């Protein structure tokens, strides 16, 4: 998938607007507004700890990134043969991504 194709997705535009809204907010301000930020924006798996709380992101940022991934996966799934599920639109975003992954509908997602 090319970067220009990615930039045409509705979620990309939403992410750009969101980035402008965040502007130059300092991390100190984000931590002051959200005392649980350090715990919520960190994950550990397979012995690796990833703390992404020290990036200029919010819950809205994560939601929009998931939406971008979902839009991209859905479009790729629709381009495959019709025997695969289309990652039903009536499900919650994380459930739809999970369904796509379970059924291999996003296996062609690769960096451009």
Overview of the molecule:
This protein is mainly α. Helices cover 54% and strands 7% of the residues. It is built from six helices and two strands. A hairpin with a 2-residue loop joins strand 1 (42-45) and strand 2. The longest helix has 21 residues, at 59-79. The chain is flat, with a radius of gyration of 16 Å. The model is unreliable at 105-112 (pLDDT under 50).
Short description:
The protein has 112 residues and is mainly alpha-helical. The protein is built from six helices and two strands.
List the helices and strands and how they pair.
Blueprint: H1 3-7, H2 10-22, H3 27-33, H4 37-40, E1 42-45, E2 48-51, H5 59-79, H6 93-102
Antiparallel strand pairs: 1-2
What is the string of SSEs from the N terminus onward? HHHHEEHH
Strand elements, count: 2
Mean pLDDT: 77
Arrangement of strands in the largest sheet: 1-2
Question: Any descriptors?
Answer:
112 residues, mainly alpha
């Amino acid at each position: 998938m090319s970067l220009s194709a990615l930039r045409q997705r509705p979620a990309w535009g939403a992410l750009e607007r969101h980035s402008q809204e965040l502007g130059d907010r300092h991390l100190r301000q984000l931590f002051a507004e959200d005392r649980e930020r350090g715990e919520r924006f960190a994950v550990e798996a397979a012995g690796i700890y990833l703390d992404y709380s020290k990036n200029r992101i919010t819950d809205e940022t994560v939601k929009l990134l998931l939406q971008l991934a979902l839009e991209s996966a859905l479009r790729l799934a629709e381009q495959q043969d019709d025997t695969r599920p289309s990652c039903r639109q009536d499900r919650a975003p994380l459930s739809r991504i999970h369904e796509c992954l379970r059924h291999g509908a996003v296996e062609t997602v690769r960096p451009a």
